[in-house]
From TrEMBL:
Region (Disordered): 127-146
Top-level taxon in the UniProt lineage: Bacteria
UniProt-recorded name of the protein: Uncharacterized protein
Residue ranges of every copy of the DUF7065 domain listed in the record: 6-174
Pfam annotation, one family: DUF7065
Compositional bias per record (Basic and acidic residues), positions renumbered to this chain: 137-146
Domain DUF7064: start-end pairs: 185-308
Length: 348
């Protein structure tokens, strides 16, 4: 019996002009240390597709390429696949999830074999609906699994035999405010896995009106655990943006605590409609591709952060350990001494 179902496939497009659908894969190859973030999606009623793509190696070599305003083509959405020109998502024969991506500076062809069927967030505590579904179909099915395949960064080709990955899939209206007072203030989206023993997705969001919401899920050995409360703590550098690690502490319904420690390999700057934030797009956020640890196990997570307490719309700049450059680049800032002194020794 397949782990996959209609919830994982492209959905009927809603009527809202900002209705969107997207698929994300984060991955890590423990052997080479390569990490990556791949997102393909579309705003069908706006006639555009989107690619967000970033990968990095421990030595600082990294790649980033966003293509956010490509005109949709007739075959971009099928019953079992979605393409944004430079990236494609599919579920071949309902057996595994596949992400394919190509660029002159990089390539990826990855297969994710899930640990469990897709899970959706539950609202925690006094949180209210957070995504403005407006009565239209919307959701966020997610899962984690083992990764196989091949990636290329520049001239380096990496064959992945036993990697680890996490996927997410969002569909429904995604409205971006056009004025500062319409933009949400902050968000923490920490999703990842250390293997079949623990996978999770936990989110906190401080909205434009001042409300604070929490949502998510936790899977332990294939069993879903109910969350009572949670908090995420990010460590950031002096640019106010580059995440280098942190932790999330989850309190389960039985008051058991799960503490997930995080050390970030590299960060990929993302925004919805523009390359680096700005008017008409969401505030720039960071996909902090990271190594989570729990009970002696390690894996892959996105320690995503958007800090916008004053609801500004300017691009981020003077970044220390986050990538806002297109194509191949080399991280210039020497962080070894900082990591060593801070205790974040895994990344040295």
């Amino acid at each position: 019996m397949s782990l996959y179902s209609e919830i994982d496939l492209p959905h009927k497009v809603g009527a809202h002009i900002d209705w969107q659908e997207s698929w994300v894969l984060i991955f890590r190859d423990r052997k080479s240390g390569c990490v990556g973030f791949l997102r393909t999606g579309a705003y069908p009623n706006q006639g555009i597709t989107q690619t967000h793509w970033g990968m990095a190696l421990p030595d600082g070599t990294r790649f980033r390429s966003h293509l956010l305003d490509r005109k949709m083509e007739p075959n971009d959405r099928t019953e079992t696949s979605a393409s944004s020109g430079t990236m494609k998502f599919s579920i071949p024969n309902m057996e595994y999830v596949r992400f394919e991506a190509h660029h002159k500076d990089a390539e990826a062809d990855l297969r994710l074999y899930d640990f469990y069927s897709s899970q959706q967030w539950e609202m925690i505590g006094a949180s209210q609906s957070h995504d403005g579904g407006g009565g239209e179909a919307h959701g966020h099915p997610e899962s984690a699994g083992r990764v196989e395949g091949r990636v290329r960064i520049g001239d380096r080709v990496i064959d992945i035999e036993n990697g680890i990955g996490y996927r997410e899939h969002g569909f429904g209206p995604r409205v971006i405010g056009q004025k500062p007072e319409e933009l949400f203030r902050s968000a923490r989206a920490h999703f990842g896995t250390v293997g079949p023993e623990l996978s999770y997705s936990v989110i906190t969001m401080h909205d434009a009106r001042g409300g604070f919401h929490k949502m998510g899920y936790v899977m332990c050995d294939g069993v879903r655990k109910k969350i009572k409360d949670l908090h995420t703590i990010n460590y950031t550098l002096g640019d106010g943006f580059s995440v280098v690690g942190g932790m999330t502490i989850v309190k389960l319904e039985n008051d058991e605590l799960i503490r997930i420690n995080v050390e970030t390999v590299d960060g990929v700057v993302t925004s919805t409609h523009l390359n680096n934030g700005g008017i008409g797009s969401s505030s720039a956020g960071i996909e902090a591709l990271s190594i989570p640890t729990w009970n002696g196990l390690d894996g892959i997570c996105d320690f995503n952060m958007i800090d916008n307490a004053h609801r500004g719309q300017l691009p981020v700049s003077h970044l220390l350990r986050a990538n806002a450059e297109d194509g191949l680049s080399q991280r210039a800032t020497d962080m070894e001494w900082v990591m060593k002194e801070s205790g974040l020794t895994r990344l040295i």
